[in-house]
Amino acid sequence: MRGSRAGSSDMSAWCSAVVLLSLILLLSVRENNASNSIRGSQFSTKPCEEIYVVGEGETLHTIGDKCGDPFIVERNPHIHDPDDVFPGLVLKIAPFYFSRKL
């Protein structure tokens, strides 16, 4: 009888461990899905960082408007043709804000 109790408690311990690990795995997968990678145009709700990666469909004009940097071409000497902007291109951004006096 003593051996069956030990076997039963071992089995319940293993089941509890499996359930706990399953919950941890499920929650970590769910958290990763909620925080998908953010690129390019999806940054619109976040302020622009000093380094910006161009997203699909973006132009220097739209990035400049969004980030407040009208001098992107001047700050990025690796851009030879402003019309040749492609997804994945890395840009240096320095936001420029106009101060208005009322």
TrEMBL record:
Lineage at the top is: Eukaryota, Viridiplantae, Streptophyta, Embryophyta, Tracheophyta
Pfam families per UniProt? LysM
Q: Which PANTHER family match?
A: EMBRYO SAC 1 (PTHR33648), OS04G0572800 PROTEIN (PTHR33648:SF15)
LysM domain residues: 52-93
Has UniProt tagged this entry with the keyword Secreted? no
Alphabetized, the UniProt keywords read: Signal
- Specify the protein name: Peptidoglycan-binding LysM domain-containing protein
- Which residues constitute the signal peptide according to the record? 1-34
